[in-house]
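User: These chains co-purify. Model them together.
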Amino acid sequence: MAELYVVGIGPGDAKHMTAAARAALDASDVLVGYEAYLDLVRPLYPDKETFSAPMRRELDRCRRALELAQSGKTVALLCSGDAGVYGMASPVLELLPEYEGVEVEIVAGVTAALSGAAVLGAPLGHDFCVISLSDLLTPWEVVEKRLRCAAEGDFAVALYNPSSHRRADHLQKACDILLETRSGETLCGVVRSIAREGQEARILTLAELRDARVDMFTTVFVGSSATRKLGGYLVTPRGYRR
Amino acid sequence: MAELYVVGIGPGDAKHMTAAARAALDASDVLVGYEAYLDLVRPLYPDKETFSAPMRRELDRCRRALELAQSGKTVALLCSGDAGVYGMASPVLELLPEYEGVEVEIVAGVTAALSGAAVLGAPLGHDFCVISLSDLLTPWEVVEKRLRCAAEGDFAVALYNPSSHRRADHLQKACDILLETRSGETLCGVVRSIAREGQEARILTLAELRDARVDMFTTVFVGSSATRKLGGYLVTPRGYRR
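Assistant: Joint model of the two components:
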């Protein structure tokens, strides 16, 4: 059976990859992915065949991976973080009915919400939302609506894709929406280049976050009303001490 | 420096553990955790010292782990799934100021929202919420409010702790709240004993989920309005095909 693994490789460093992810890469004839993700695993597999396509050419990458699998190769399609969370699992499964005989296995990985949270402490210790601020594939009104609902529900929030060249003000707009409901003193955190060289983390208030400059390599965390700063850590209590 | 690792061991099977989690367990003198989690790793470390305390005695386990670390041992405190998501990272960091000289490292892991999603397909392919239905540490009104906000925001939702002996009707109550806003045809999924022997998964509608019987080993997924059933998979599109 032709096999395609859709693999979450975690934040970058091989040590945050699961054994199942490693086994899928080991078993594969071809590694397919965005060039920057291939660069992360090339040192582990210097001799494997690879195929890359640029950012925003995700469907090309999915189709190529499916074609290669259909041709009889064992293929791993690499996703940063998890395979499912804003990953390639969805588009692959949408295209799969067109590729008879290909068997797909989704291999979960540590998404940036979890790896970034571990750097900051435990900001996602209770109920939380994950929201992408990219409007490439989602109308911005939907993003705004979800931010309002997340704020109203007093969720801790992990924000993906907080900024890019094309939409440098999205984080500011998002903070303004959160600030309609939530205090400016709400504790937040940013983590850049999680588990990669030059990793940086900072704890700040929602008011400060509004005016912070972040880039596309940053994951942003907004605490709930219960989130506290404790000894340099950002912590959302589960409530055991209440 | 006395060291305490708070380790997310993933859903159960060693193959879903990250290399960093394995390294933390390798380096530890003592493994501390709920008995069922210790059972999962004992085959890997038959000779390691262990300390367990029953469910609901989480603070005892945290204090014991901190005391052992302070006494000079290297300690791993085990969490199912991730270390942060409803895990021990929060209570450990809350108690840490009482334990001078102990250094804590949080090791992220694959939480049930991700590992369960990978079994079903890609239900969390777009923005999502994670909500626990346990009211042991959270007033039920807060849970209800968050369910309403999640439904209103048209998030995909992963529900943890959907049921227990004491609160067998929580999932039904949760579904009734979601059904105030969301269609009964909304696609949902349940996964039981993720990555363990006897793993079971099922795709069903929100109306069917309301009357389904689930236990505490089950993680429940509720799709957004965009979630579809495709070739036996539950898929929330990222939108590439639009």
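Residues 12 and 196 of chain A are 6 Å apart (CA to CA).
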